Amino acid sequence: MATLINKLAQFKHLTLDEWEELITQKDSINREELYELSEKTRRRYYGNKIFLRGLIEFSNFCKNNCYYCGIRRSNYNVKRYRLSKDEILECCHLGYKLGYRTFVLQSGEDFVYNTDLISDIVSSIKSFYPDCAITLSLGERDKEDYQAWFDSGADRYLLRHETAYFSHYKKLHPKEMSLENRMQCLVNLKKIGYQVGVGFMVGSPYQSPKTLASDMAFIERFNPHMVGIGPFIPHKDTPFRDKTAGSLNDTLFFLSLIRLTIPKVLLPATTALGTIHPLGRELGIKVGANVLMPNLSPKDVRKDYLLYDNKICTGDEAAECINCLSQRMKNINYEIVSERGDSLVNTPNYLSQNFNVKS
User: Fold this and answer.
1) CB 183 within 8 A of CB 161
2) Three-class SS of residue 206?
3) For residue 1, what pLDDT is reported?
4) How high is the pLDDT of residue 353?
């Protein structure tokens, strides 16, 4: 296994079979050496800087029925909400004063927020805060929507692929959703010129070394600017309520592999990681992550945007949260900076959809 890790460290591609071999035998790998290598790789490009993203979860309505998600449309126990444009701008105003220079607008797939409304919100944020980046995470939309939002000032788009293995995708989603469409959306986003983020849940139901090998091979070929991974955590009101959660150790392992695979990638230490372990985010940073995403949403709605159970920080004030994180990062010799934190990944705007993922 050391040979395959060294191959990654030398910026060489792994075959699908090599990825599967590496993942199958992950327990035999010297984790201390692996994490030292991935952390060193991150420092080479980003030093000890940790970038903040101010997360604004502006709607928990969703037309989809993903089997793992707490805001799926068939969950009638959710208290639904939508934020107005003025409420979203107020979140940005607070975040800017606290030092945030990236705002992430995230929601379920809620088409009440149509093309023109999102364009208006984006352009308004840009007019007030031209030095800030805007990241959208609104799910699958038409290419024309993505283009309109990009033209309005959006810089980045997060769209987790969830799995690059077709049969696995079908086990996580209802039949009206398809991996083909998800991949086409990612291609469209790259062609338009967004900084694009992908990702998957570690330990999701029916995941295997084969599916994970396809995920890593896809990420390697797609060469995204950002990769968001975190442990699967079951939600009590979903079909996966009784499934086993993903583990801390496996999540750290894949964070480190992604850092070695795409050395210049932006890599969050997610809230889900902090949910399964009190020091989860610190541990994620120490194996190669360099992004944190505190919540700027109004306190009274945070508890209603629960994709999984026991989510942390739903009651923190925004200022309280950033002060806490800043000190926690200082304790492990990292520094939160007030910068946009753009990705250093240099990737072409066009990529063929031929990802060769397995069925």
Assistant:
1) yes
2) coil
3) 62
4) 47
What are the pLDDT digits (tens) for 5-45?
Answer: 888 888 788 999 999 999 999 999 999 999 999 999 999 99
d(CA 113, CA 132): 22
Task: Answer yes or no: is pLDDT of 120 > 90.
Answer: yes
DSSP characters over 264-322 = T-B-B--HHHHHHSTTHHHHHHHTT--EE--B-S-HHHHTT--SSTT-S-SS--HHHHH
For residue 323, what are the contacts with CB-CB under 8 A and spacing of at least 6? Answer: none
Q: Helix 2-9 to helix 16-24 angle, to the nearest 10 degrees?
A: 130
| Pairwise CA distance, residues 59 & 83, whole Å | 6
Phi, then psi, of 345 in degrees rounded to 5: -65, 130
Going by C-alpha positions, the residue among 138, 218, 140 that lies closest to residue 176 is 140
Which residue reads 């990944």 in tokens? 345
Question: 30 by DSSP, 3-state: which?
Answer: coil
- The number of CA neighbours under 13 Å toward the Cβ of 354 is 1
pLDDT tens string 147-187: 999 999 999 999 999 999 999 999 999 999 999 999 999 99
- Measured at the CA of 131, the angle between CA 125 and CA 132, to 5 degrees, comes to 55
CA–CA separation, 292 and 53 (whole Å): 6
Please provide the distance, in angstroms rounded to a whole number, between the alpha carbons at the two ends of the chain.
26
Q: In what helix (H) or strand (E) does residue 254 lie, and over which residues does it extend?
A: helix 248-261
Q: How far apart are CA 293 and CA 56, in angstroms?
A: 10
Architecture of domain 2-337: Alpha-Beta Barrel (3.20)
pTM across the whole model:
0.95
Three-class DSSP category at 166: helix
Contact assessment for residue 173 and residue 152, using Cβ atoms and an 8 Å cutoff: no
Amino acid at position 131, single letter:
D
CB 202 within 8 A of CB 231: yes
pLDDT for residue 50:
98
Which CA distances in Å does 252 have to 191, 213, 229, 273, 284?
Answer: 31, 16, 10, 9, 6
Helical residues (DSSP H) of 47-84, grouped into ranges:
none
- Higher confidence at residue 341 or residue 318? 341
- CA-closest candidate to residue 312, choices 270, 275, 268: 275
**Sign of the alpha-carbon dihedral angle for 220, 223, 224, 225:** positive
Residue 354 has pLDDT above 60, yes or no: no
pLDDT at 112: 98
